[in-house]
């Protein structure tokens, strides 16, 4: 499902507090692996390779691709908006930490924050519909704009999800 190779930098952190197990997590654009400080170097290498492979497989299988976004946007444009939107391109971006999506009205280019890659479908759909509406209602968030944006399936529920997520994680998105 994911067309690009997922290969982040791996950072190994030796911990005197860790005795038997290792732990790995994705932090920004790297995999952070914590290992016991006294772990044998050969065993460390084997365990790190194993846990990194598992994380990569999990990430690769769950991440939605840009091609998936385009297919979804085209379907939503037809099904929800009656084909009114102009879709130039749509892709995931990692530099949007203050908004869920953005749209260039003239070109129809839509950018969706990578933070939405694992949200429920109805949430992603609502954000995409919102950005699609910007391509044909160009006077901001007017009454006409919301008439179309709120046609997304479960739009109100999606707004609530995003508000709660923003509050819980203190993410300064809008």
UniProtKB/TrEMBL annotation:
Gene3D superfamilies, A to Z: Metalloproteases ('zincins'), catalytic domain (3.30.2010.10)
Superkingdom field: Bacteria
Span of domain YgjP-like metallopeptidase: 93-158
Cross-referenced InterPro entries: UTP_pyrophosphatase-like, YgjP-like_metallopeptidase
Record-linked PANTHER family: UNCHARACTERIZED PROTEIN YGJP (PTHR30399), UTP PYROPHOSPHATASE (PTHR30399:SF1)
Name of the protein in its database record: YgjP-like metallopeptidase domain-containing protein
Organism: Corynebacterium mustelae
